[in-house]
Amino acid sequence: MTTITERYELAKAKYAEIGVDTEAALQKLQQVKISMHCWQGDDVKGFLTPDGELTGGIMSTGNYPGAAHTPAQLRADLEKAYSLIPGKHKLNLHAIYLDTDEAVDLDQIEPKHFEKWVTWAKEQGLGLDFNPTFFSHPMMKDGFTLSHPDKAVRDYWIEHGKRSRKIAEYFGKELGETCYTNFWVPDGFKDNPIDRLSPRKRLMESLDEIFAEEIDEQYNVDTVESKLFGLGAEAYTVGSHEFYMGYGLTRNKAILLDAGHFHPTEVISNKLSSLALFSKKNLMLHVSRPVRWDSDHVVIMDDELQDIAKELVRNDLLEKTAIGLDFFDATINRVAAWVIGTRNTQKALLKAMLEPTDQLKEMENSFDFTSRLAYTEELKDFPYGDVWNYFCEQNGVPVGLDWLKEVRAYEENVLTER
Ligand code: RNT
Ligand code: ZN
């Protein structure tokens, strides 16, 4: 039996033949942090109104047993997932995941309601990102929040947005790592609107109010996430791609691209290079998988995931890009969902790092499209899996399917007891 190291050495030699340094790729991959989203652990319920309805036009389907019902359970599940993922990463929290005995509403949240998450993140060596929650709440009226015609509704959500940024600032200060705070606002109409302009103007003004206070970007960076449509908002979403391109570029806010928020054949991989040219800010991604609609399936090693990774690596955008995940599947073991999606994202990045990028660019620049095609096709069969397995082993996490055994054991001992 050849060992993981022996297989790696063979792969290393094979990659070296085409000018790829596997050691450099491994070092690079070690630096990449993925922001894993807390909401896969409990089907986007949170702890504010866990029995309430999930609104905002998103949907989690399935009733696989073992969802987390308390912050402590969610943290335990996250710890299990992180223990099976190589490297050091971040956790992406939503406001509804506050951890407190106090009865607080979204317009009253303060850093102290997230203290336990910070203590835990410090123990675990994790960074934190944050999201105000503009859904699953009775103050979302008629499908609208920040762009609602009623000022009282808008003011409620503006207050929530402002407080969310203070919580993010607190995360950034406490953890010594920038917190990315993502604004996704589901407001929209089911059927064709007469007035597409006024809600957008109101959203713009509400956001301007939320962002009025300068917060040191060492601690908090605001990001804005667009969307094409939601369930029940099929005809019109206020915060469209054009809206946030304009908003982000003029307000100097980071633009977040979610892989599921565009027309079915439209891909975010082809948007990264343009954004990188025109946005002074870093970019953020929600790596997700839309299946016929914005279904938020677990990320698999499909063409778009690989294309996203290639764009980040080939254009040297990794340092400029915060990579977050966004999927929620309740038909499978939720810890497994995290592990599969996160490991795939890392693996796709590694695969991209194992390309002879400079040589490929050189072929293209000299119009040698024959070699470009021959190399990119041949590369598909290169042994990147052996390099990945070595990376896992070096990081002390299970290699190959071994992680599934651990998830199964955890399921048996912990999840089914809930
Ligand atoms: C919804 C957006 C958004 C949410 C999370 C829960 O379509 O993608 O990012 O998934 O905020
Ligand atoms: Zn998203």
Kindly describe this structure.
It is a single chain. The chain has 418 residues and is α/β, with parallel strands linked by helices. The chain has one domain (32-350): TIM Barrel, CATH 3.20.20.150. The protein has 14 helices and twelve strands. The protein has helices spanning 4-17, 22-31, 71-83, 115-124, 151-175, 197-210, 241-251, 272-278, 303-314, 334-353, 357-365, 369-379, 384-394, 402-413; strands spanning 34-37, 90-94, 127-131, 179-184, 188-189, 220-225, 236-237, 254-258, 283-287, 289-291, 293-297, 321-325. An eight-stranded parallel beta sheet has the order 3-2-1-12-9-8-6-4. Helix 11 packs antiparallel against helix 12. The radius of gyration is 22 Å and the shape is globular. The structure holds L-rhamnitol and zinc ion. L-rhamnitol (RNT) binds next to loops.
| CATH class term | Alpha Beta
- Would you identify the CATH architecture? Alpha-Beta Barrel
Sequence stretches where pLDDT stays below 50 over 5 or more residues: none
Strand order of the largest sheet: 3-2-1-12-9-8-6-4
- Which ligands accompany this protein? L-rhamnitol, zinc ion
CATH topology: TIM Barrel
Determine Rg (CA atoms, Å): 22 Å
Helix and strand element order: HHEHEHEHEEHEEHEHEEEHEHHHHH
Strand fraction: 5-15%
- The helix fraction, in percent, is 40-55%
Mean pLDDT across the residues is 97
Distance between the termini: 41 Å
Q: What is the CATH superfamily label?
A: Divalent-metal-dependent TIM barrel enzymes
Query: What is the count of helical runs?
Result: 14
- Domains, number: 1
